[in-house]
Amino acid sequence: MNKKLRKAVIAGNWKMNKTPAEATELLEAIKPLVKDADCGVIACVPYVDLAAALEAAKGSNVAVGAQNCHWEKSGAYTGEISADMLTSMGTQYVIIGHSERRTYFGETDVTVNKRMRAALDGGLSVIVCVGEYLEQREQGITDELVALQTKIALGGVGKEELKKIIIAYEPIWAIGTGKTATAQQANEVCAVIRATVAKLYDNASADAMTIQYGGSMNAKNAAELLDQPDVDGGLIGGASLKPTDFAEIVKAASR
């Protein structure tokens, strides 16, 4: 992390977990543990939990986000949610292009960009995910692939809009597997992302960009990962459902 240049942010991705009542209980447990955080703290919850989470987070330093949004404002898109629907509730953030959306639900680089555009136009801040499969890493194309995903995701995004975007590097082989990229591997790819932003915009924009690591960061490995100069936070899966573990990660980002 380099807090002189950019903000550190820890975001929890709750995935398909917790009922509204359970979401309230979890946030009530998390809030006192992170109230003194010197970093951004976000909880990205299932759609059905948004109302409860927004109510529970009132008056706290925990922002609330959704886990996806559609690229259209309305229409015949059964099961989808628009950015305007999210902002009308008071939702502040949305995750776009998570590896599970890409792997299980046919998300592509093109639809990630379309959702990004809709989210920004709808007033949301975006956590956009990029990352490679194990086979792609073994083929030695991680840097090229992640740079390409970043370029496509940011297509049509103005320099001022970058202030509302966080990029999360998520090696797909490390999502939910317990495997984690080494701190050096994570930093190398985050640096590639930053260099790509610099080429697309300029060095100042790249220096200001918050880039998270999202591959099984937990209470034990967070400090080492966050010590890396280009890792500015984490998009946390399983550990975000455990208040004390999540608080340890926030603590590591607050140093």
Write the layout of secondary structure elements.
Layout: E1 9-13, H1 20-34, E2 40-44, H2 50-57, E3 62-66, H3 83-89, E4 93-96, H4 99-105, H5 109-121, E5 125-130, H6 134-138, H7 142-153, E6 165-169, H8 183-200, H9 203-208, E7 211-213, H10 222-226, E8 233-236, H11 243-253
Parallel strand pairs: 1-2, 1-8, 2-3, 3-4, 4-5, 5-6, 6-7
Helix pairs in contact: 1-2, 1-11, 7-8
Q: What general outline do the C-alpha atoms trace?
A: globular
Instruction: Name the poorly predicted regions.
Output: none
Radius of gyration: 17 Å
**How is the main sheet built?**
8 strands, parallel
Main-sheet strand order equals 7-6-5-4-3-2-1-8
Order of helices and strands: EHEHEHEHHEHHEHHEHEH
H/I helix tally: 11
Mean pLDDT: 95
CATH superfamily label: Aldolase class I
Tell me the distance between the termini.
10 Å
Tell me the name of the CATH class.
Answer: Alpha Beta
**Beta strands, count:** 8
Strand content: 5-15%
What does this structure look like?
- The chain is an alpha/beta fold and 255 residues long.
- It has one domain: Aldolase class I (TIM Barrel).
- The chain contains eleven helices and eight strands.
- The longest helix is centred in the C-terminal third of the chain and has 18 residues.
What key attributes describe this structure?
TIM Barrel, 11 helices
Short summary of the structure?
By secondary structure, the protein is an alpha/beta fold. It is built from eleven helices and eight strands.
